[in-house]
Amino acid sequence: MALTGLDIFKSLPKTNCKECGVPTCLAFAMKVASGQAGLDDCPKLTDDARSSLTEASAPAQRLVKIGSAPHLIEIGQETVLYRHEERFHHPTAVALTINDTMSEADLTQACEKFKALSFHRVGETLTSDMVALVNDSGSPDNMQAAAETIYNALGVPMVLMSDSPNTLSTVAMGPLSGGAVVLYCTGPAEVVDLVAMVKDTDAKLCVDGTIESVAGQVEKLNELGVKDILISPGKVSAGETLEFLTKSRRGTLLKKFRQLGCPVLTLAVGDDSVAAALDACAFVCKYSGIVVSNAWEGHLLAPILTTRQNIYTDPQKPVQVEPKVYDVGDVSADSPLLVTTNFSLSYYSVESEVESARVPCRIIAVDTEGTSVLTGWASDKFNPETITQAMKTAGVDQLVSHHKVVIPGHVAVIAAQLGEESGWNVLVGPKDAGGIGAYLKNDWKNV
Questions:
Q1: Which residues contact 160 (CB under 8 A, 6 or more apart)?
Q2: What digits encode the pLDDT tens for the residues 119-141?
């Protein structure tokens, strides 16, 4: 069983030197016990103490790294059950399925489609991360040829799925032996066979089954020196998968049961592609480390990636854009000048409406520390002084000739004072971003 914070504290130097970044040794011990810090952060810990505290210093859930830069994937090492307690740290990897029965031409076409499945949302580019190659042909040669074609075209990490340990061992060698694959044997296999699969490669291993069976397999594999392991409930119902995800996370974090301290790989595939995509979204929300999906259509993949983006942001830190002037469209000195905050949702709501209206505009994102218009105004961060300062810093008087600035309708009350402070003609725009298009087309030119 893992040591408590007080147990760890007894072995610390107790100097409260603060070199670890924590005010006291006791506070540091508590962070180590909860998996939020490592013993390496303490520069004055003796070697004997470090050795005796190895179990406590290791995070409850192991961090597994797959592949290398620029396609490095890190999953696991999560520290909380609920996102609002702190945050989730390592985003779920999304792996799209490909069948090894496809011709080389079809594989090449699938790789091109994989590259094209990219979405831009609130300043981030969202893409899938991996390919899950399924050995439906039953042929090691077919799978190896398909794997090499895909890897050469994309360079992304892969999940290799086959019911044959020998096939997986064969395919994991050669160009794919650099740790860029997860080997998932979907058929029966002895522990010695699983060890042999990864013995001569840096591949990661995935084992499936019930909670009890995977815990037993992980324990045996650890004894034989295999550490980088993923666990999976296998091809079961969505409800059973969610139960597996919940039990494994709770067992790891609450009971310190390290045999379950592995990232979880889940399968969200099926003939009903919409239902499978919904399952994938649920698995992302509920702790999955890798989701294997057949959501090859943009309207199915986008919700999965959007869910991941939402869940893996820091709930204690608003998503922000850089506070500056943004040009939207082919702007000129006569283009409208709009003001909003640097809260990403506020800014991108305004930007998307401007793009839809097809009216070139400049948008000033005022630094409100990532708060919305009303919140920024209520906290005195979005006021005539801060807006005027943002305008001066951006040099907008050199960018526009009309000396008119449009503020959100929700803060119409500051219009007169902003006009006095800045010397500009302040116009009150619509309260909601949805009204910006009509305002630019109908009202702007008439003011």
A1: 133, 135, 143, 147, 168, 171, 172, 176, 181, 182, 183, 184
A2: 988 878 999 999 999 999 999 99
